[in-house]
Amino acid sequence: MKSLTEKVAIITGASTGIGAATAKLFAAEGARVVLVARTDAALDTLAEKIAVSGGECAICPGDVRDEATAEAAVALAQRAFGGLDIAFNNAGALGEMGPVTDISCDGWREAIDVNLTGAFLSARHQIPALLARGGGSLIFTSSFVGHTAGFPGMSAYAASKAGVLGLVRNLAVEYAARGIRVNALLPGAVDTPMGREVAHTEELQRFVANLNAMKRIAAPEELARAALFLASDSSSFMTGETMLVDGGVSVNHT
């Protein structure tokens, strides 16, 4: 039996990278998936691929910084598929990069608004829907940056992703007894558009790969499998956890 049969999932940041890989995997594992992202065309393409593979999905174009997007995604999950069992709040932005003295207030706010406030707004609307089904799995994408390591030039990103971990731990305590598990997925270097924005040359890619104990950069599908573990009953006694999937960058000193 597929691990997510009869489950309904929302995935934000679904158009590319980890979000797209996870959407395809969740659908292949039996979930009916609501895809949320800012890019309509990319969502249409992904939805077509999922349908061709025999999966079910619906698209909800929108920006996670807008509370109306969170509300619309939950309403779509309930209207199209009857409820909500899983939410993967994966949408993210780097924000402005550079020394903290050079980061503008707008650049700072972009990272905070997308990564932290967007996660809060999504959860605010997802939690009542999860409770209506008797509980479920709430997953957030954070990062090793700002948790186990600092990374020069990424103060806005690090602060926003560290904030997500505080949100995860608090929500886990608030809702565990009511059947909602809340966990964070912490990727290391992954071959995604955002990852390539940080490591934008072959030299930088080799440098980033060498930071990892595994000496390589992950494929998005590897993170999708970790998200599947957190979404499924395989992780039924896990909540409030920060699950590093970082190729050993957090422990590597070579």
Could you explain how this protein is built, in words?
It is a single chain. 47% of the residues are buried. The protein has helices spanning 17-28, 40-52, 67-81, 105-132, 155-175, 193-198, 202-211, 220-231; strands spanning 8-12, 32-37, 56-61, 86-89, 136-141, 180-187, 242-245. The longest helix is centred in the middle third of the chain and has 28 residues, at 105-132. The chain is an alpha/beta fold and 254 residues long. The chain has a single domain, classed as NAD(P)-binding Rossmann-like Domain (Rossmann fold). Strands 3-2-1-4-5-6-7 form a seven-stranded parallel sheet, sandwiched between helices.
Write the layout of secondary structure elements.
Elements: E1 8-12, H1 17-28, E2 32-37, H2 40-52, E3 56-61, H3 67-81, E4 86-89, H4 105-132, E5 136-141, H5 155-175, E6 180-187, H6 193-198, H7 202-211, H8 220-231, E7 242-245
Parallel strand pairs: 1-2, 1-4, 2-3, 4-5, 5-6, 6-7
